[in-house]
Records
---
Amino acid sequence: MSRETVVAEDAANADQARLADAVRQVSAVRGRSLRRSVLVGAALLAAVIVMFGVSLSFGDMVMPIGKVVATLFGGGDGGSQFVVLELRLPRALLAILVGAGFGLSGAVFQTVLRNPLASPDLIGISAGASAVAVTAALLFQVSGLALSASALTGSLVAGAAIYLLAWRQGIVGQRLVLVGIGVGMGLSSIVWYVMARSEVTDAQEAFRWLAGSLNGRSWGQVWPLLIALGVLVPLTVLAAHALRPLQLGDDAAAGLGAKVEGGRLALLGCATALAGVATAAAGPVGFVAFVAAPIARRLVPGRGAALPQAALTGALLVLVADFAAQHALPSVQLPVGVVTSIIGAPYLLLLLARANRVGSGG
Amino acid sequence: MADHTLEARDVRLGYGEREIVPGLSVAVPPGRITVIVGPNACGKSTLLRAMARLLTPSAGAVLLNGRSIQEMPTKDVAAVLGILPQSPTAPEGITVSDLVGRGRYPHQGWFRRWSAEDDEAVARALLSTDVLELADRSVDELSGGQRQRVWIAMALAQRTDILLLDEPTTFLDASHQLDVLDLLTDLNRDHGVTMVAVLHDLNLACRYADHMIAMKAGRIVAEGRPVDIVTEELVGEVFGMRCSVIEDPASATPMVVPLGRHHVKGPPA
């Protein structure tokens, strides 16, 4: 073997070693990030389960957790069965489902449109649901499941209208957000017009729905939402495959072979429907969709959309907020939306102040 | 590495009513570095975007290996041809390795998500752009030069034989511009990657281009080796600028010395 071939082989071996080392480093970085993501997800899930247990055992009548669990599995007396299974369980389940729906919806909206202000409660999707639901309730005396259906219809119609109005040979996040805020304001004025025209007692009922409330919710709201999420969540997971390239902007995504317009439309469609079914069940619970995803992204930085964590954060948020709404004031049950707004509004101000400072406009 | 062919045939390009390229044909020489130059708004980025199927021609076609690029499945195109868009923006908080990993998208399916091959492609991309030690840093924290290298790494992780780059040196200082162009030359020489880049700096273009395309008002004025085409007349015609063309003392390629109204020796011409 000549000296040159030995030298060349040494160099090749050194290159191989360098590459192997780099591969190890890359997979280690990925592993660390994945572990953190799983860990945070598990912690959030545990917190949701704990809060779920607390919601079931606390109330006018405090029940030890052992008795709650026994009742859940078919034990307990008639009284505890009624309190846990008929009053508290549907309400707590609904809080989880509504929160998860809003959290997932907001996360998809914000990542697809690359804008932290792009959440269904700020860009007119919730306003669409409110306008149709309030009109249906006050002018046509619609209630129950039909009222939920009209809220869902309202959010889907508003979503489609905003998408079409913002379309100029493609969708730009900034423009869609502005169009959405404008459409939302128009729809809110419809809500107030209908409210102003109706009887005070009816209007008060509508107002409670508008604030976003879980008071007096029962299994009748849980099942439709559970079924809807059973369909929408898998669809969102499938559509989210295109989210990774889409996050890099339209040109880079198209260059990577993603179907930009189709992928975005599918994702926005899923997210609009998610917000719609959640609103249909509990009313437009303010700011949950808006804050859940940013909190989740902060917990798992550098992992893109963090959709599962955002859904869990939303669920935890609504559970905690509803618990506070029920027990914060001794004599009054607040609508849960009031509590979530207390959390969400300062964050919106913070975001606007920061966006102004860095000049990104959101 | 297989030499793929890329050409535009009689393409008309524009945005809406506004036509920018009124019919143009060009073939990219395989395995070489092609640089497109021209004044602002001459259609050079538009042409590059059309060649990357980001813009659909209103007439004519872009052909990749003889097939219309618009009619091929977009993921098949992405396996052969990569594009680094002009000043791309990374999502907030994304890490370097995550961003570079997204270049693997065309090689992943709905169910086959991440493999050892993906790790290796990312590792190679990070090594050749010299950003391995930044792997777990957030892209937000990087300098302009580092950020551009990370984006190039993302395009490299895609492992394509053709790479289109829209002004890859814009916003970089002089030394980082050289770094990026040296890096592209390494990739071209070591792996035979066909490069097409839009560049602003004429002298760097002359130095790094195997093949130069000079455009004005949506048309190609001249194309060929810089040493064959870059003359005082051409620069005058394309950029509307008086200059003298001398030999670059470092590379023996043409060097354009612009002549303004002031600070020029000798009697006025």
---
Amino acid sequence: MKKVLSMLKPHSKPLVLSIIFATVNTVMQLLLPFYTKEIMDKGILAKDMEKLVQICLIMLGFTVIGIITSLLNTYFSTRTSVGYAVTLRNFIFEKVSRLSQSDIDKIGVASLVTRTTNDVRQVHDIVLSTLKSLIPIPIMFVGGLVLAFKMNAKLARIALWSIPVLLVLAVILIAVIVPMFSKIQKLVDKLNQSMREKISGIRVIRAFNKTEYEDERFSKTNLDLTGISLRAHRIMAGLLPIVSIGLYSLICIIVYISVSDANTLDPITQSEEIRSAIPNMYAFITYFTLVITAVTSVVSIVVSIPKASISGKRIKVIMDAVSDIVESENPVTPDEKDKGKVEFRNVTFKHKPLPEKDTKKKRSLKAKKKDKNADTTVKNTEPFTLNNVSFVSNPGEITAIIGITGSGKTTLVNLIPRLYDTTEGEVLVAGVNVKDLSSQELEDRIAVIPQQAFLFSGTIADNIRFGKEDATDTEIWRALEIAQAKSFVAAMPDGIESFVSQAGKNFSGGQKQRLAIARAIVKGAEICIFDDSFSALDLATDARLRASLKENLTDTNLIIVAQRVGTVINADRIIVLDNGNVVGQGTHTELLKTCSTYREIVVTQLSEEALEGVEINEQE
Amino acid sequence: MNTLDQTSYNSKYAAYRNQPKNEQKPENMKGTVIRFFALIKPQAISMAIVCIASMLNTVCTVVSPQYLADLINVLQEQIEGRLTGGTIDFSGTYTIIIRLALIYFMSSLFMFVQQYTSAGLSQKLVCRLREQLNSKLSRLPLSYYDKNTKGQVISKMINDIENVSSSLQSSIVTILTSIVQVTGSLVMMLSTGNMWMTLVAICLVPISGTVSYQISKISKKWFRRYWDTMGDLNGHIEEMYAGHTIVRMFGHESKSVEEFRDITYRLAKNSFMANMISGILNPILTLIKNINYVSLCLLGGYFYIGLNKGFVAGVKSVALGDIQAFLSYSSYFSSPIINLSKIINNIQSSLASAERVFAILDEEEEVPDCNDNNSDEKAKGLIEFRDVSFRYVEDIPLIDNLNLTAKPGSVTAIVGPTGAGKQQ
């Protein structure tokens, strides 16, 4: 939490000003009961109309000053909290932008989004309410006590006994209730998570008939949560009534003592003191009420801390995250003659275990392990191991990587743009180890079309220009043409200015893949990596696309990951992966002779295609 | 300031925007209210206890200043007596003190009963609603999840449920107590017979009401813009994080950060204005209240002194305790009315939440699987499609009149170009 709050530093000026004005405002508020007393005493009871008007005006003056300081406090506290939220958000966003893909997978995109939006808002709210409500409390407490003493020292000494009692009560209450509220917060999180998982994994849950199991789990958490919040809220329900009963009893005692004291005063020499007995008593009661309210409101603010501190902790995890990928300090500029070359030298890759010391991650991991449905998603996103992989691919060539699901194909291509670092061995791009290239240099040379074609909100042109910011319309149309996307884009009423909705939902899987390919083509990079990017295309489109790539991107090193034999058949080099090992390397005809795994893949796929469906009667 | 009229500006992230909470209105107010009462029917007794206890508590609160005034008036007489040489005699005050203490005690007791019962009521209601929602989710057809971003809507439902059970219930209590408080204090003020002071006290209401209405109208506009920008922020973050690899591989980090800074800057501006304008409201209301307070003191003092010195006539006598009581009543009277717009907003937003929860609970369910398992042993593994039609959207046929038999032991392949409907 400390680290998260340290981001307040750039806003220390408005912060300090807001504290100052909060203090002045509190002092003004403390003066009001005193002037009420003066009105009663010196004005009304003394039957002095002039004095009454005079005191009323003074009181009004202080009210106005109080309002002005209160407005200034609002201004500066809002500026502080809003500015703080901006600093925090910008910091988190920039930090996440620099993280590697594996770091992001560890925390999860949904969770990162929540941290950047909602958690920051929680922390912002706490800062704002602290500056507006918490700062005045100690001043109220001390000031109220001092003024109570000033009004009537004897009474104050008696009433003072109630303070330790109240404090002990407050401390006990806080000790009991804060752990309960932290527990509540955790259970709410758990419930939310279980609901989210249920929605995202609904197909898996239904398919495996896990509904009952999931429901039971939910019901259990729900009952736990209800039980504990019921207890916590019932305890809180007792707070205010008990405090007010105490306060009212105290008032009765105060009334008795302050009036009976008047009996001991001499009616002639101390007439003024006798006259002020009741106004004094009023002011005293008001001050003491302020003191007691201050203590009780501390309790209700403290109760809201668990919520914010959880947000704080979640933000801190991001702030502390260290990227796996370390930028080289002395980047090497590659030789022009090696342009577009990719080489793997004895590359071994093992997925790093998550750091154990991070309790938060451990907890979420444990939670995932418990849940079978989440477990499968972890398996899918976690890269697989590679073992001693070596190959060279050159510009103008097509290198295809084939293998069954989980053989390590995606991991292999992800090592080229350095999404992950190798465990052993070297990956060379343009003749230089990727670890020695500046990230800028590396990015410029590579274009990637990932497995899941991802489009951004905006127009088609916006999305294509992601590859090249200053691409002209002609360039865009040409890229679309190469990617076999021209026909469907041209058929849309707004052409390349057509709108792409959230995550490209208004396009089919195949259309999205072709747009993603066009985006990569427009970049004009020397290395182009297609990670299973033809999977959603039918065979005819797939074939046309490959032909047009070969024809148009003559200087580019094309690296294609595929599962279909048809996709790789014409490649200059096919690398066959099995369980992270390269079991064959060569052209289609070579591999058919030398590599049994490849032959197996070919045979199974061809025989599958040879099978015929039974009696399909499909009408449009 | 003329940009204010432009309540919302276009953005490519419009899909991520949400209706701000304080502007949500239920579409079918009456139906939702009736549904809500049906929902709390099993807890009708608890609800009745909460309502009665909170009303009794308010009655005690409204009555107590009058008893305090009586006590003060008697004591003041004693003090005046002491000033002329007598001694203060408490015997006349005992019954008043006991009555006052009793009222204070009752008030605290009712407050406890109300809060204790309402905690139970709302927590149990939350529990029940969550359970209902969860089991509903299990029974919804898969197609429900395919439509749009329903998933997100449902995950926000947890908040809606909280809103329904705690806010709606407390709103009902607030309305009841407000009515008791306003009429009670008005009656008490009028019963003092001092028309002038009552008039000044009532004056507070239209002034504060207008001010708070105007300010909240402006702040609402800024909050609307704030929520819109928040939606843009959400959209940008969600896409940039989800497309992280693309952003990095296409060297878009700096541009994305730049765009992010742009949005946060806009967010900061809107958030500052929204919080600032709504933050102004309280100090201004306090100012108006304090001016009113001072005027009442002045007026009360004028009557007190005037009656004593003889320059005012024709009004009932005003004692010190009465002035104090008046000050309490004027704030009891005005605070519910000043907060009226806030209360209405709360009720509307919780009713809107209730409506959303009910809408999901009313969704058509998947037909449950046949429980009597009479499937033929020899048909095991046989899959048969008989005249199957399927459409995602009403008007666009996807699968039309499909007949297919897949016998056990045979392999059936489904072939077709992209988008022909193979997976369905």
